[in-house]
Structures
1.
Amino acid sequence: MIFSPQTYRIADKPMEPFIDADEIWDYLNTKTPTAERVHEIIEKSLSKKRLNLEEVAVLINADTTELIQLIKEGARTLKKKVYGNRIVLFAPLYVGSKCANNCVYCGFRSSNTHAVRKTLSEQELIDEITALEENGQKRLILVYGEHSDYSPEYIADNVRTAYNVKKGNGEIRRININAAPMEIEEFRTMKKAGIGTFQVFQETYHPEIYKTYHLSGKKTDYEYRLTSLDRAQEAGLDDVGIGALFGLYDWRFELMALVRHTNHLEACYNVGPHTISFPRIKDASGLNFGDKYFVNDHDFARLIAILRLAVPYTGLILTAREPEHLRDEIIQYGVSQIDGGTKIELGTYAKQEKNVDLDKGQFKINDDRSLSQIIDELLEQEMLPSFCTACYRLGRTGEHFMEFSVPGFIKRFCTPNAILTLAEYIEDYANKETAEKGWLAIDKNIATLDEEMQHSVKGKIEKIKSGVRDLYY
Ligand code: SAM
Ligand code: SF4
């Protein structure tokens, strides 16, 4: 057992709902806390202990400029302590935009007659993956609307096809999925296909509010969605990703609920989510959305810092929905994964087209930098871009994914693997300028390792330079 389960009003049982909206509001409806209490909680988090709901509510209610600054500094320190300077890179690949659900906020919603519906053919899928590999991508997330065409077998077939596409030294080594919730047996099909993480975002955790956004289709069933990742766990799929779509309801409630969901998975399966996502609503085809719950940049940065402190071990994903300047700032408060070179209109990686037509994508993205630009800029900021896929390929998943709780894990595994995958990227894809910055970063990061590891990593880099690929610890 990694963490001891918490006791809340609804006792956690596998595959049973666990959100008590009144309980969450009871925690939130307290006064601004003292600086002393905020300090205490940040200290707890810096000792890498996950926070409970009461403590998260305290951080949320700490809304003076000084206390917010304290929280952001705490998150920055924790991120350095737990993750070092690594940032893992991935790309989303939209496979199908048909959708039987009517989610008010989404360009793919069934009632949107302007949406251009498309499903990639097998050849188009291969072309997209080839283009992604030619850019240096190694980790993908396949994204689907919810439609009978996108059955678990169909998705599993796509996964197998994708793993088999090899272009030059390029290959995809980890495929995550964002698709409709499944039954246990269907999740088994996903696991057999060799997927990494399965993501299902609850969108809003408030049961009543949820109804107002999900007008028809299977997604109207709040509880079926809420318990979906329990079913994944039952199927042995132990890397799961949760998320909330910020802007549907009060961000403070959603933040608490994400932590409650984490507690639930820990209580029932001894392992929290592998990742948490926190997309904000962006413009989409035919979207006419009120701004009652709009989350401004200031609160968005705050909520990410609080989340970092609340769940020190969980990966946090920030996508290209957000603009460049904000991504650069927010990464520092604890984001561990970002997408790079993102295109969300179906079929546009191979055609090298820009995202321009809202009717062709799910929503508007705001950071259209190429992967190579992003890597260059991360290196400028002394970050270490990583394409590492070692843990899941070596079975270090779920409960066995002890990554951050084992002392020395980062120095033994994560930093060396980040260095090796960056070295591969430089050899195969980087321009001269980025390559120079990359080798400098590699030297700097090697110097942080112990002597034996330095020797080992240098040996592997020599092998990479002589053409060997896919070396990891
Ligand atoms: N159809 C599946 C589902 O709904 O679970 C797959 C997910 S959907 C293609 C990916 C995610 O995008 C959704 O879960 C939602 O959180 C997010 N999303 C939908 N509309 C959005 C918008 N207008 N702006 C930003 N994110 C949006
Ligand atoms: Fe369909 Fe997902 Fe969009 Fe809802 S969020 S309309 S289920 S693609």
2.
Amino acid sequence: MKSGKIIILGSGPAGCTAGIYAARAGLEPLLISGPVQGGQLTKTAAIENWPGEKSVSGFDLMDKLMDHAKSLGVNFISDSIVSADLSERPFTLKSENETYRADTIIIATGANPKWLGIPSEEKFRGNGVSACATCDGFFYRDQNTAVIGGGNTALSDALYLANLAKHVYLVHRRDEFRAEQTLTDRIHEKVQEGKITLVLNAGVTEILGDEMSGVSGVRVSFKDGSTKELPVTGVFVAIGHIPNSTLFEGMLEMDHGIIKTGNSCYRTGTSIPGVFAAGDVQDPVYRQAITSAGTGCMAAQDAARYLKEAGAI
Ligand code: FAD
Ligand code: NAP
């Protein structure tokens, strides 16, 4: 059994930043790094919106963050949690082979984008297919792009790309958007300006191209049975995210799997006092490395204040 004042779950930007702040507050944090050491960013080639780094590979950036945390004494443990008991303090977390106990927990387990699940999407992921327009849109400036989805993310992505790309096709499976009205109105303005084309009642059935030159188009199928090819080099899948929160289902208040925070006097506090959440797992809107790091910093400070008020430090 391993125990500590604070356990951080996740080694992405949120977890590492929480580790840095918790270590500097003298909390001697244990950080359980989970199945993806360094988190989602390690899977992307170039990050160009992390302040202070004009361009850095996701792997190198996360290597630096983990190294920084380790240099301050954060105890990184290569393990993944499979069950939790938050009914009493100290809280208990279990992996396949170990039990962990802590007075406070910071959940920074991230979220994964939903994908269409077609084979050609997998083939071109990272080479023409992305789930993050804010991250990768820049690489498609002055090119034709497609955005798939009809929610706030898809419409925000389409608007973002409309300012960068040559043209944007917004492909949605219905003829009505679930996004908020203001975004829908702005999309229609861009349609009038000729920057966006709506491709409605349609689904992408294949992403076209070859491995050497990447994506050259998408094939869409309409509800009436017809098909069409759209000439695009960038495809942005924006059909929702799945937060890594199933471990805590039935224990913490959530909205569609997103852990609710700010329920108490702690901005990152969850519905259970002493349990904090940071990063994408609690973020329905921004989901960026920098915002994840920011909430990681907040969670560590909240946890330190909580421990002090509880008389644990
Ligand atoms: P994550 O980075 O997802 O990390 C989650 C951590 O939790 C992982 O270490 C995982 O191993 C761990 N974990 C999960 N389950 C468990 C468990 N059961 N037990 C223990 N640990 C667990 N953002 C930008 O700002 N700029 C970009 O250019 C950018 N590009 C991106 C490109 C791609 C392809 C993707 C997918 C995302 C990109 N993002 C970018 C978004 C960014 O990666 C995320 O917003 C950010 O990584 C979220 O950080 P996080 O720490 O909350 O979670
Ligand atoms: P979302 O609201 O769940 O929308 C997902 C969209 O993708 C829906 O239009 C859905 O179609 C479509 N879709 C889902 N699965 C699909 C599939 N397999 N194939 C094709 N299309 C599919 O997800 P989101 O847009 O990422 O938003 C998530 C949350 O973040 C929401 O609460 C949203 O309000 C919030 N958010 C807010 C902002 C903002 O405030 N500006 C920005 C981004 C996100 P249907 O409509 O037919 O179901």
